[in-house]
Amino acid sequence: MGALEKEFFNSAFVSYFLASCFNIGHLIWLKEKFGRWAIALTVIGFVVNTLALTSRTLQSGRIPFANMYEFGMAFVWGLIFFYLYIAYRYKNYSLGAFVLPVAFVLTGIFSSFYQEVRPLMPALKSNWLLIHVITAVIAYGALAISFALAVMYLWRQRMEEAGEEGAITSLLPSLAILDALVNRCIRFAVPFLTLLIVTGAVWAEYAWGSYWRWDPKETWSLITWLIYAMYLHGRVALGWRGKKAMNWAVIGFITVLFTFIGVNVLLPGLHSYAL
Amino acid sequence: MNEQDVIIQQTTYRKKLSQILHILTSMKTAMALLMLLAVAAMLGTVISPQSYDIYHSIGFRLLLTLICGSTFICSMKQLAALCLLNTWRQLVPWGTLAVHMAIVVIGLGALYGNVYGFSEEIHLSVGKNYEINEEKYRGIGEPFTLHLENFETQYYADGTVSDWISHIRVEQNGQNEFTQEVKVNHPLIYQGVSIYQSSFGMAIQTQYLDAAGNVLQEASLGEGRGMVLEGDTVILPVRYIGGMNPQIMYIVYKGGREYDWGAAPLGSSRFIGSQMGMVKFTEAQPFSGLLIKRDPGIPLVWSGFLLLAVGFFASLYKKQFWSIIKKDR
Q: What are phi and psi of A203, to 5 degrees?
C-alpha cells in the first residue's frame, strides 16, 4: 500500500512535469495539439494525486495532514483543482504554462520530505487539525494561482514593452483581465489566510496554553498576512494597479512559501514536527 | 499680544494639530507601520531570543500600540463615513469596519490578558500536592489543590508516543472534587484556571555529604539540571536508569571541566574524586511539568477573531454575495 501511494505521487510528479513542458511548448510553437496534451496530462496528474491522497488516508486511517509530505500532496492537489476550475471557467488554458511549473517544482520539493505513515503525535491529536489544514490548502492554493497569474502579467507586459506582441501573447489573457484575476484570487484567499491564523491560534491555546508566542511559524504567518494586508490597502486606497500590484502578489507568495517550507527547514520552533 | 492675535495663534495651533493628526492617521503612515511591523517581526525570527528578544522590547510593543491606535482612528473615520455617506445598507463598509475594529479588540484582549493574567510552569512529582491560592495567583477565588495521582506515557503499537497523561485530582476544602486526565490538547479548566500538560521528567533527590556522611547540601533536580556547590563545583545527575536496581548516572564538573563521573544506585553514596565529599541520590520520582495559566483576555481575543473572520468574508466577497442575492430574486 505504501509503495503504491509513492508510485501515485511519483506519477503525479511526472505528469505535472510533462504537462508543464507541453504547456510551455504550446505557448512557444502555438500547436493546438500541445495544449490538448497538456490538459490531458494535468487531469491525469490530478487523478493520480487524488489516488495518492486516498491511499495515504486508507493506510493511516486518518486525514493525511500530519507532516510536510502529506500536507504538500494536499496543497498541490488544491492548486491543480483551482487551476482546472479557472481554466475551465475562463476557457483559457494558457495559465497552465505558469501554474504547472509551480506545481511540478513543489511536488518535487514535497516528495523529498517523504515519510512512512506514522500515527499522530500528541500535539496533532485534535479536531482543529482538519479545519486548520483545509483553510491552509484553500488559502495557499489560491495564492499560488495569484502568483502564477502575476508572473504571467509581468511576462506579457515585458513582451509588449519589447514590441514582441503577436502570436504568443495572443494566447494569454489581456493585462487588464490578468490584473483583475490576480486581485480576485487574493481577495478570495485573504479571509482563508485569516482563518488559518485564527484556527492555529485557538488550537495553540488548547494544546500549549498560549494563543500566540511569537514562534517562527506564527510570526511568519503574520508577516504573510501583513504583506497581503498592505496589498489590499494599496489596491483600495492608493490605487495600486498593474506592475506594482503584481510585484506585491509575487512577494506575497514568496513569503507564503517561506512560512510554509522555509520556516520548517531553517527556523526550528514548536511547529517543527510538521517536517 | 491682543485678543485677536491669541485667537489667530490658537487657530494655527489647531490647524497644525489637525495636520499632525491627519499625517498620523494617513494611509501612507498606516502602510509604513505595517511594513515596519513586518520587518521587525522578520528580524525577530533571525536574531536568537537569547541575545535579544525583539517581541517583548518596548519599541516593538510601542509599534503594536501605534498600529492598534491608528487602526482605531481609521475605523472611527470609517464609521463616520458610513453614516455621512448613508451607505449603512451595504455590507462591504460594515465588513471593513468589522475587520479594523477586530484588530483593536484583539489588541485590547491581549493587553488585558497580559496585565491581569498569569502563566507559570510547575514541576509536580507523583503523589505530591500543589496549592493554587490567592497569594500565588491573583483573582482565582477560593483556593484549591492539585494532586498528581500518576503520570504515564502511552505508546502506539509501533513505539511512537501517543500521549503524555497526568492523572490529576482536584481537591477543595479538604474534599475531592473530581479527577481528570490532563494531556496535550486536553487541559483541565477549573475556576478560570487552565492546567496544561507541558513537560515531564524525573525528579532526583540529590545530596552532597562530607566524608563522615553529614548532609551539606540537598536539592531536587531534573535530569540534566545541576546543583552548584561552594566554589565552582557542579553535581549533575545526567540520567535515571530504572529497572530492578535503579541507578543514576552523574557527572561532577569543577571549574567548568569534567572532574569525575559515575553511576550510583539509589540510596548509596559515592566519593567524588579523592579530595571531595560524597554524592548520594536518595529518591527518584517521575514528575509532570504543568503549565498553570489564567488569561482573562481570552473572551475578548476570541470575539476579535470571530469579528475578523466574519468581517473579511463580508468585505472581500461582496461581488459573489450580491450576485447570488440578485440571482435569487
A: -60, -45
Nearest to B309 among A122, A191, A211 (CB): A191
Same domain? For B269 and B319 the reply is no
The grid coordinates of residue B240 equal 535515571
B38 has a chain A CB within 8 A of its CB: yes
Which residue in chain B has the smallest CA separation from A209?
B196
Domain identity same for B264 and B210: yes
B residues 240..299 contacting A (CB < 8 A) = 291, 293, 298
Contact yes or no for B119 and A209 at CB 8 A: yes
pLDDT tens per residue across all 329 residues of chain B: 567 777 777 778 888 888 887 877 788 899 999 999 999 999 998 887 777 889 999 999 999 999 999 999 989 988 988 888 877 778 888 999 999 999 999 999 999 999 999 999 998 988 889 999 888 888 788 899 999 999 988 888 888 888 889 999 999 988 888 999 999 899 999 998 999 998 888 889 999 998 888 999 999 888 888 898 877 889 999 989 888 889 999 999 988 889 899 999 999 999 988 778 899 999 888 888 999 999 999 999 999 999 999 999 988 886 554 454 455 44
| Total domains, chain B | 3
Contact assignment for A226 to B30 by CB distance below 8 Å = no
Kindly state whether residues B88 and B135 are assigned to the same domain.
no
Supply the range of the domain harboring residue B16.
3-117+297-328
| Cell representation of residue B312 | 473579511
The length of chain B, given as a count of residues: 329
DSSP state of A173: P
Query: CA dihedral defined by B121, B125, B126, B127, rounded to 10 degrees?
Result: -110
Q: Which residues of B touch A229 (CB under 8 A)?
A: 34
- How, if at all, do strands B193-209 and B278-294 pair? antiparallel
Question: Is the Cβ–Cβ distance between B204 and B284 less than 8 Å?
Answer: yes
pTM reported for the whole predicted model = 0.86
Chain A nearest-CA distance from B259, in A, is 34
Q: Which of the residues A117, A218, A226, A265 would you substitute to probe the B interface, choosing the one with the greatest number of B C-beta atoms within 10 Å?
A: A226
Residue B111 shares a structural domain with residue B20: yes
